[in-house]
Design a protein that fits this description.
Elements: E1 8-12, E2 15-19, E3 30-32, E4 43-44, E5 47-49, H1 64-100, H2 109-130, E6 136-138, E7 141-143, H3 146-155, H4 157-164, H5 173-176, H6 190-203, H7 207-237, H8 258-280, H9 292-323, H10 325-343, H11 348-365, H12 372-379, H13 385-400, H14 411-418, E8 422-426, E9 431-433, E10 441-454, E11 460-465, E12 470-471, H15 473-477, E13 488-501, H16 502-509, H17 513-534, H18 546-553, H19 581-594, H20 597-622
Antiparallel strand pairs: 1-2, 3-5, 4-6, 6-7, 8-13, 9-13, 10-11, 10-12, 10-13
Helix pairs in contact: 1-2, 1-6, 1-7, 6-7, 7-8, 7-9, 10-11, 13-14
GO molecular function: cGMP binding; intracellularly cAMP-activated cation channel activity; intracellularly cGMP-activated cation channel activity; protein-containing complex binding
Organism: Gambusia affinis
Keywords: cGMP, cGMP-binding, Ion channel, Ion transport, Ligand-gated ion channel, Membrane, Nucleotide-binding, Sensory transduction, Transmembrane, Transmembrane helix, Transport, Vision
């Protein structure tokens, strides 16, 4: 099996979350975090757990308490790895200093040895207690047996390096004296340092800051080693022997106070460090070497300095570039859009709205793509489908679950729909949809407000929709053949909306027929209510059909016949429009001038009689039937 990280599925309620974890068996208290890949083909898991467990992957879902323990275990294990990394850094930084500078003396040697052996104790604990209890993957199963875990650790290259780092060369102290170079094998435990870096980056929200600090530390360590070498070469040639070597200022010995001695020793280190900085960074202004040994040493310094410094600068550029990639993309898109609008002489008000959209989208979402949801999908493309669903549920489910339209639908259908949502930002006054447009998408308000407007100049506000509201579903579901927008909707302030395309919804509803029927039923009811409220003229609202009156009166006692009932209101036919004054004046002038008064009078009288007869016939046809004379449903 190739090396890799174990991704263990943890289910909580509706979702499954993946986490890589290391497990240690033995005492109490779980520790959980990520891990480096094993070098022998086995994959260590990422939960550190100090309690016995069966040698198989648990199938039961984890509780909230177990997950909280796992999170605390991450931090605790990182703290332990920090302790091991600190012991390794003690050896890395101070072995060259103690070898090159006269900081270690017979008077303070016990303190140095005490710190050294404390670091060795940390190494031993890590090798004997922690590392042999790492679970690993073999054939797809998590191996939790203690013997198997110990054997697996002893087969790895890391075990060999860890054992070699504890080779007791300090026994030679009895023959050579206390020589810090005999502790160089302690540097072989470098794997713990890299493991700590990976674990720390896994729990940091802004890991690029730590990467910048770590890269800077690498550069400082190179300068540190060069300063130690320069002081050692100066001591080998002779302090102050030539103009190129260190002159020995700060290495004074004799009867001085401890504070003054420390200050002078620090001064010598700083002077040598200054030389190393000027050499590796190739600043110049250094004294010319005189001997062949000095020339060779200086040439090596220059070559190594150029090589190391260029690597550090390139790595720093990559770290900073990766940290600011989204912002750089945002600036590039905005600059190109402004350049395009300027070249085509787009009006200034349109340009200002485009700039406002870019600025608000970046400030509110922190990302920019063709649309933010598309950019998010590009980021999460490599994740498995279930993990993308988990992220979508965490981000959007709290809003979509409150939408009345989807209440009662299949829960899995909502989960599938969450992956198809895309987020769009609208500026104040922007039209979200217009009446009469072909409906190809539905809208869910994530944040902000939209208004349903109409009337002259679109200034009449019929309704205000807030976060959690949905609109556009009537056209999307095409209820009753209606595939066009039935109202104008504009953004009231900045509005962030989820958009669901008709194609995506149809592909989802194919697998959920019951939810499809429920959605169409709700959309049909919403369409009927909308038509009742907006499309029926006020004059027809007072006419009550006979079967409606029967349903309303069902179950009630009949009223006494003696009581006179008010007749039901009867709509009156609309009158003919009045003759315009200009036309009436023209007719009168024609009658006076042409002598056609008698003929025109007869025509006018006939037209008035026909109008009166038409009104009487309409009134007779609209009068409700007499319940006594005409048989109705009650009589049947």
């Amino acid at each position: 099996m190739p090396p890799g990280n174990l991704m263990t599925i943890r289910r909580r309620g509706h979702r499954s979350a993946a986490a890589s974890h290391i497990r240690l068996q033995g005492s109490s208290g779980p520790y959980r975090t990520s891990t480096r890949t094993s070098t022998d083909g086995h994959i260590p898991t990422s939960r550190t757990q100090f309690r016995s467990a069966p040698p198989q992957l648990p199938a039961a879902p984890q509780s909230e308490e177990e997950e909280e323990e796992g999170r605390s275990g991450d931090i605790l294990y990182v703290l332990w790895m920090f302790l091991v990394s600190a012991a390794w850094n003690w050896n890395v930084w101070l072995i060259p200093v103690r070898w090159a500078f006269p900081y270690q003396t017979p008077q303070n040697a016990p303190y140095w040895l005490l710190a050294d052996y404390a670091c060795d104790l940390i190494y031993i604990l890590d090798i004997a207690v922690f590392q042999p209890r790492l679970q690993f993957i073999r054939g797809g199963d998590i191996v939790c047996d203690k013997k198997e875990m110990r054997k697996n650790y002893m087969k790895t290259k890391r075990f060999k390096f860890d054992v070699a780092s504890l080779v007791p060369l300090e026994l030679l102290y009895f023959k050579t004296g206390i020589n810090p170079l005999l502790r160089l094998p302690r540097l072989l435990k470098i794997n713990s340092f890299f493991e700590f870096n990976e674990r720390l980056e896994a729990i940091l929200t802004k890991a690029y800051i730590y990467r910048v600090i770590r890269t800077t530390t690498y550069l400082l360590y190179c300068l540190h080693c060069n300063a130690c070498l320069y002081h050692w070469v100066s001591s080998y040639i002779g302090l102050g022997a030539t103009q190129w070597v260190y002159n020995g200022v700060g290495n004074r010995s004799g009867k001085v106070t401890l504070w003054k001695l420390n200050v002078e020793l620090a001064q010598s280190y700083i002077r040598c460090y200054y030389f190393a900085v000027k050499t590796l960074i190739t600043i110049g202004g250094l004294p010319d070497p005189t001997s062949l040994f000095e020339i060779v040493f200086q040439l090596i310094n220059y070559f190594v300095g150029v090589f190391v410094f260029s690597i550090m600068i390139g790595q720093m550029r990559d770290v900073v570039g990766a940290a600011t990639a989204a912002q750089t993309y945002y600036r590039t898109c905005m600059d190109n859009t402004i350049k395009y609008m300027t070249s085509y002489r787009i009006p200034k008000d349109v340009q200002n709205r485009v700039k406002t959209w870019y600025n608000y989208t970046w400030q509110s979402q922190g990302m920019l793509g063709k649309e933010s949801a598309t950019y998010e999908q590009e980021l999460l493309t490599q994740l498995p489908d279930k993990m993308r669903l988990d992220i979508a549920v965490d981000v959007n489910y709290s809003i979509v679950s409150k939408v009345p339209l989807f209440q009662g639908c299949d829960r899995q259908m909502i989960f599938d729909m969450l992956k198809s949502l895309r987020s769009v930002v609208y500026l104040p006054g922007d039209y979200v949809c217009k009446k009469g447009e072909v409906g190809r998408e539905m809208y869910i308000i994530k944040a902000g407000e939209v208004q349903v407007v109409g009337g002259p100049n679109e200034r009449t506000v019929f309704a205000t929709l807030r976060a959690g509201s949905v609109f556009g579903e009537i056209s999307l579901l095409a209820v009753g053949g209606v595939n066009r927008r039935t109202a104008n909707v504009i953004a009231h302030g900045f509005a962030n909306l989820f958009i669901l395309d008709k194609k995506d919804l149809n592909e989802i509803l194919v697998h959920y027929p019951e939810s499809k029927k429920l959605l169409r039923k709700k959309a049909r009811l919403a369409s009927r209510l909308s038509s009742d409220a907006c499309c029926i003229p006020p004059s027809s609202l007072c006419v009550t059909p006979f079967h409606h009156r029967k349903m309303l009166n069902k179950g009630k006692k009949p009223e006494p016949k003696a009581e006179a009932k008010e007749p039901a209101p009867v709509p009156v036919a609309s009158h003919r429009p009045e003759t315009p004054r200009l036309l009436r004046a023209a007719l009168e002038m024609t009658e006076r001038s042409s002598g056609l008064k008698g003929a025109l009078a007869r025509v006018k009288e006939r037209s008035s009689k026909s109008s009166i007869s038409l009104q009487r016939s309409l009134s007779a046809s609209l009068r409700p039937p007499d319940p006594v004379l005409s048989p109705g449903p009650d009589l049947d």
